[in-house]
Amino acid sequence: MNDRDELLNRLGPFGQSHVLRFWDRLSESHRTSLASQLARIDFAEISRLYARRGDVADFGRLLERMEPLPAIRLADRAELAAEASSVGLSALAAGRAAAMVVAGGQGTRLGFEHPKGLFPIGPLSRRTLFQIHVEKVLATSRRCGAGLPLFVMTSPATDAETREFLARNDRFGLPAEDLFIFCQGTMPAVSAADGRLLLDAEDHVAESPDGHGGMPAALARSGGLDELARRGIEHILYFQVDNPLAAALDPWFLGLHLLRGAEMSSQVVAKRSPEDRVGNVVSVDGRLHVVEYSDLPDEFAQLRSADGSLMVWAGSIAVHVINVDLLRRSVTDRQALPFHLAHKRVPFLDDEGRRIDPPAPNAIKFERFIFDLMPHARKGLVVEVDPAEAFSPLKNAPGSATDSPQWVRERMIDLHRRWLSDAGVRLSETAAVEISPLWALDADEAARKSARGARVVRPTYFSPDGPVEVDPAALS
Ligand code: UTP
Questions:
Q1: Which of 75, 140, 209, 306 sits 20 to 30 Å CA-CA off 220?
Q2: How far is ligand 1, taken at its centre, from the CA of residue 143, in Å?
Q3: Residue 178 neighbours by CB under 8 Å, 6+ apart
Q4: How many whole angstroms separate alpha carbon 208 and alpha carbon 19?
Q5: Residue from 108, 132, 212 whose mutation best tests the ligand 1 pocket (most atoms within 8 A of CB)
Q6: What DSSP letter does each residue of 126-177 carry, written as one string?
Q7: DSSP H/E element including 96
Q8: Are 407 and 400 in contact (CB under 8 A)?
Q9: What is the residue with the minimal CA distance to atom 9 of ligand 1?
């Protein structure tokens, strides 16, 4: 329907007719592409969301009813480790769980020109984030003796390149039937000043991925929920592509989730200071919630228990076990995953068609967050992990103090050095090491494979086939 008048009738009531500004000079095919993009946009919803931009959620009122967080702390781990791991491994062997990595973000802070999953993060191997995650899935498959699936969420910004990359590399050994790639939806960005859509081309409205919370809807649309049902999968182990230390299919974490009868379980790290910039997991009226650091009132951030520890202590690292039933309910309940508004810089065309690169945030983007599922879980569980073992996200450009490529690589080296030195291997001060999950998936396996008293004096990559010395000068 390339009828301009028909489009104007639809756009007019929402004050969005300006997106047809260049209509007269568009070719027929460009008109078709703009018209089909406009057909996908829910203008009433955009209007509603923009109208609520000034609403301030009263987190103080919620937090007044805060109760101690029911959590499995690091100190409780040893006691539960064996039973949880065995329960988790049995569920994996029975094909009841799948891994899911969300990889639809635009990675603007990192400034890498490809999807973040293609970043060669391996400190010595230069393996990409995707390869590391796939190797964990394969290593866990081997351990439990069953093929385990990996679901990958992309977005229009990352989809084509991700598919091409995984295909070109034969999915790093993952069987084709165990890889399910699905693409999330988008939301238009609007001008912060007046709520009008922004054009980023004469025939295209500026859009961005609709947040990691767009996952359940995208999974439903793509047939992924049916695929989960067909395979009898009841639990998703969810993580983010930028954390190479994420436990892709950790039997222990899955086992805790099952033993406690949870519907959603979330890994957290203990905050070092009240001001840490993390999502804070809190418990209110028996339900878990995440309160973003920017929403956490200072008087609650500073609250301390009798022993001096922070009351709001748990920072989410976005690693969750989520029951498929909960995902299904969230698709039908539109309130379950509300849109959050963020002020961002979005380049756009001005009235004369000139491209403007605004120096400061000019637009509002709408995103859903997966952690909003937490209060909808009939039972939630919080599991504390050690960030040195489980959380080292690649967010920032080279040269940044934290979360940069170098910072992440150093954290990976520190962890793998620790596995080997705990196993009795003697490492020279300067010997960087990196371990493939296909050589050792965890510290215990590294210990089983290492000879006590063995020496590592040069940088060494423990590849799937065994240790290989690496010349650091050859690395870019
Ligand atoms: P971030 O919020 O850190 O965003 O995403 P990002 O795209 O990686 O980086 P910036 O903020 O633009 O610099 C956390 C995780 O959620 C995924 C990302 O791919 C990353 O794994 N994500 C984010 C999605 O899959 N879809 C989205 O719409 C947003």
A1: 140
A2: 30
A3: 137, 147, 148, 149, 150
A4: 17
A5: 212
A6: ---HHHHHHHHHHHHHHHHTS---EEEEE-TTTHHHHHHHHHHTGGGG--GG
A7: none
A8: yes
A9: 107
Q: Phi and psi for 161 in degrees, rounded to 5? A: -70, -35
Tally the C-alpha atoms within 13 A of residue 183's C-alpha that lie toward its C-beta: 12
Per-residue pLDDT of 35-71, as tens digits, reads 999 999 999 999 999 999 988 888 999 999 999 999 9
Put residue 466 in one of left, alpha, beta given phi > 0 → left and psi -120 to 50 → alpha: left
pTM reported for the whole predicted model: 0.96
Q: Ligand 1 atom 17: the closest Cα is on which residue? A: 105
Number of Cβ within a 10 Å radius of residue 401: 7
Distances (CA, A) of 178 to 52, 135, 152, 231: 42, 13, 11, 11
> Which atom of ligand 1 has the smallest separation from the CA of 158?
19
Q: How many residues does the chain have?
A: 476
Distance 106 CA to ligand 1 centre (A): 6
Residue of 242, 245, 290, 392 with the most ligand 1 atoms within 8 Å of its CB, for mutation: 242
Distance from Cα 85 to the centre of ligand 1, integer Å: 30
Predicted confidence (pLDDT) per residue in 223-241, tens digit = 999 999 999 999 999 999 9
Residues 6+ apart with CB under 8 A from 328: 216, 220, 225
Closest to 259 in 3D by CA, of 98, 444, 82, 69: 82
Nearest CA to ligand 1 atom 4: 105
Handedness of CA 360, 200, 113, 116 (dihedral sign): positive
Q: Which protein residue has the closest C-alpha to ligand 1 atom 3?
A: 395
pLDDT at 474 over 90: no
Helix 324-332 / helix 224-231 crossing angle, nearest 10 deg: 150
Distance of alpha carbon 188 from alpha carbon 46, whole angstroms: 8
